[in-house]
Amino acid sequence: MPQRPLTLDGEGVVCDAKGLTDFDRLRTVLTRRGSREPFLFAFDLLELDGEDLRPRCWNERRAALARLLRKAGDGVRLSEHLDGGDGATVFRHACAMGLEGVVAKRRDRPYRSGRSPDWIKVKNPEAPAARRIME
Fold it and tell me: Per-residue pLDDT tens for 101-112?
């Protein structure tokens, strides 16, 4: 990462051989010091060089985040996103792939912490993370 003050929204993960996030493996790996497996999936850029970017639209924040992460090492990766498309079809494919779910965001909205009508998270009920919550 560039040596600049910044605040990211992201999630620390470990992926399995198929590239799917694996929470149980993350917990195990975190007990081993020096492991290079965990990395941060960066979702959003909230602050850069002391400037609060949360009021800006997602497109601007995402473009700035992508520019920053071009030179980042393996420890931080830009999360993937899809433009447009049918939400129900995307969700079905995400579930079939074994992903944890999807997040749909309004691109013209500022960043808001917590639950928001501008961001909708739909979890795959068959994903291991969802099953752990139900147990």
Answer: 898 888 889 998
pTM here is 0.80
Query: Residue 134's pLDDT is what?
Result: 47
Say which residues have a Cβ less than 8 Å from residue 90's Cβ, sequence separation at least 6.
82, 102
Q: Which fold has domain 6-134?
A: D-amino Acid Aminotransferase; Chain A, domain 1 (3.30.470)
Task: Decide the pairing of beta strands 76-78 and 39-48.
Answer: parallel
What are the tokens at 69?
A: 């992460």
Give one DSSP letter per residue of 72-107, joined into a string: --TTEEEPP---S--HHHHHHHHHHHT--EEEEE-T
